[in-house]
Amino acid sequence: MSFEYAPAPESRAVVDIASSYGLFIDGTFVEPEGGKTFKTVNPATEEVLADVAEAGEPDVDRAVAAARRAYDKVWSRMPGSERAKYLYRIARLLAERSREFAVLETLDNGKPIRESRDVDVPTAAAHFFYYAGWADKLEHAGFGPNPRPHGVAAQVIPWNFPLLMLAWKIAPALAAGNTVVLKPAETTPLSALLFADLLRQAELPPGVVNIVTGARETGSLLVNHPGVDKIAFTGSTPVGKRIAAEVAGSRKSLTLELGGKAANIVFDDAPIDQAVEGIVNGIYFNQGQVCCAGSRLLVQESIADELVDRLKRRLSTLRVGDPMDKNTDVGAINSAQQLERITTLSQAGEDEGATRWTAACELPEKGYWFAPTVFTDVHPAHRIAREEIFGPVLSVLTFRTPAEAVQKANNTPYGLSAGIWTEKGSRILWMADQLRAGVVWANTFNRFDPTSPFGGYKESGYGREGGRHGLAAYLAEGSAL
Amino acid sequence: MTASVSSATSDARTGADGSSSDTEKVLARARDVVGATELDDTNLARYLHGLPGVDKVGADGRAAMLGTRSIKTTAKQWALDTIVSMIDLTTLEGADTPGKVRTLAAKARTPDPSDPSCPRPAAVCVYGDLVHVAKDALAGTGVKIAAVATAFPSGRASLDVRLADTREAVAQGADEIDMVIDRGAFLAGQYSKVFEDIVAVREACRADGAQAHLKVILETGELATYDNVRRASWLAMLAGADFIKTSTGKVQPAATLPVTILMLEAVRDFRELTGTQVGVKPAGGISSSKDAIKYLVAVNETLGEDWLNPDWFRFGASSLLNDVLMQRSKMRTGHYWGPDYVTVS
Fold first, then answer.
1. Residue B265: closest C-alpha in chain A
2. The domain containing residue B212 runs over which residues?
């Protein structure tokens, strides 16, 4: 007897997608001055979802000017307790409209509906709830008696968690009293535009949040705009480096959350069934398109074979396919470009002599798909052990001693996250102390909470998002008057 | 405290050659797995405590994730029928009477009078003294008779009393015996005592040519930690359990999804190690179809189809059947029954 799950598709009808979208500037949707647009597609079907405006220089000017006006006239003068009311309202509306946002996110991004429903949207709402609480308590946040906002914040976010990254950026910025111009990623603009609609519903004063859509060019115009006081960027390390170079010597303050090549380290005394789940969650969650993904599995030699066998057995039960099906575990890759990168790096892994294993699964004909893949016999010199693949590809390396585990884990230009699996508490503390990673998870992986700071060491960026520390990026230290 | 099994169980032997050679096989396998010639507390502890630990947060998270599976239409139909066929329809009250047991048996014979295609539950589960009543009432139906034995639910009686309890139920014709382990001994680290008890009860189940299946109730609600659940599962399997069962239903919490998943993982790993397949029975507290489907999903995604039938997975439940019947009828007719259409038992 076998138990076949019947299709359980989420309804697409819960969200209205317009055929075209303008730019959200000063509280209204406006057409871009040059009239340029681009298309956003559903990566699971390659169907075009909407035409989206591409902001050029005059549009970015208007957006920054609107943000400045709103900062000077309204937002910077408003008591924190009043700003908090808006943030709470946004949080509540997000929770109320969560199904709409989840469906839209899945259609535009390709991630499984289970994930957008259970992780992305609720965590985004939680960030607004959390930072709403800070808005009237900034003088107690540890940044001096009278911390000041920077002014206009330019925020550029990636396509892997479109709404959640928006929340990570906008919630602390507004709580601290800044106004915002945000540019969502080119391939995933729709949830930000639906969020703009939500801001109107929340009656947020015009200009406090502006959303300009576009590609890399628009982002570059925004971060280089002289009217911007603060820049927050989440994305790839090469682009982050470019932004840092462009901003150098200016008055702008900058935080960067960039790439990663996290080590997920499993010792021989680990809770093995949970470790397997943690490895799966670490690298196959969101199709591995996660900056803090546990893309390098470091496993103690004495249990390596057993662990890899258990991992493969577990991967054979992953359900890959239609992201709108509520039982799907692994959805579509976000774009043809990203699929190309994953394919190229995986080929490099084979060429360099690592052993490739792929879970048996049927992939849909249309759309961008990559089956969950494991490489064993990987060595630190291989490209797949060094470069960020940003896809559902795990590289398995082994170690013999804790010191070797630390050495291998730190042997990367990145330093965003790491995982430790052991039943020994003292070893967890020792390892966490040795690892050069901004987030170290113990006996879990990829857990996010608005109260916990997140950010990188080394080429994974600087600055923290989340928690009290996340406010620091949006406040200038004050002094007693 | 190092009494060896062979001496403790020798009293329990009934002389039937079948049962003693069966016991020898179980003991030999246990010695082999544990890697010791003496199955004493020290060696058993060394083995059981060497099993990989369980991280509670992760185990609970896995269960919560499996609980989100959306089982609809044809999958739900299949699941509901399968659940009915896996139910051990249970009455375990001090106030049970022959009449009450006959009513329950009639329900098992004809779960849904309006739908002859409805499968029958796997078994009817009663106290030992009522086995003959159930046996008579269910003759020819294929529904098994399960009896709780060994001073159920506390198990607080001497081994002689518990064995006599078992033998009586088997003699009356019970097909399956649901025994309880000595949780006190387990928690005190007297693993060999728990082990020997189970071996002895298994022997009683197979004495004089009988072939009663042995379900070992761990009473996970009293074991306090997930590590203990894993250890108790292995101890029971090493001692020859045919099934491991979560709970008596008399202690809260009874069956939970994370605990059941732990036990599913244990039987999976045990088969991989020894080649012997052991069944799993969550019991107590599963009263809705929705919950039962989550357990079925857990079996499917932890073990696969080898365990997806009543020989290897059971639900110990009393009120679950009626909810599943209501859901079945809803799928068939498009509307819910009023409660008056569900037969009481």
1. A273
2. 20-334
pTM of the predicted model as reported, rounded to 2 decimal places: 0.95
For residues B276-283, give the mean pLDDT.
98
Determine whether the interchain pair B305/A1 forms a contact, defined as Cβ–Cβ distance below 8 Å: yes
pLDDT at B48 over 70: yes
Tell whether A447 is within 8 A of chain B (Cβ).
Answer: no
The answer to ipTM > 0.90 is: yes
CATH number of the domain enclosing B117: 3.20.20.70
Three-class SS state of B251: coil
B182 assigned to active site = no
Smallest Cα distance from B305 to chain A, Å? 5
Length of chain A: 481
CA distance A254 to B304: 51
Contact A405, A418 (CB under 8 A): no
B66 touches chain A (CB under 8 A): no
Predicted confidence (pLDDT) per residue in B5-34, tens digit: 444 444 444 444 567 899 999 999 999 999
Residue with tokens 């960026």: A461
A-chain residues near B55 (CB < 8 A): 271, 274, 443-444
Helix (H) or strand (E) holding A476: strand A475-476
Is B11 a domain residue? no
d(CA A229, CA A413): 29
CB atoms within 10 A of CB B25: 11
The catalytic site residues of A sit at 257, 291
Residue B342 belongs to a domain = no
CB contact under 8 A, B69 and A5: yes
Instruction: Name every residue whose Cβ is closer than 8 Å to that of residue A223 and which is 6 or more positions away in sequence.
Output: A154, A156, A231, A233, A243, A246, A247
Q: Domain tally for chain B? A: 1
Token digits of residue B320: 């679950």
Residues A443 and A427: their CA atoms lie apart, in Å, by: 12
* Residues A197-215 pLDDT 10s: 999 999 999 999 999 999 9
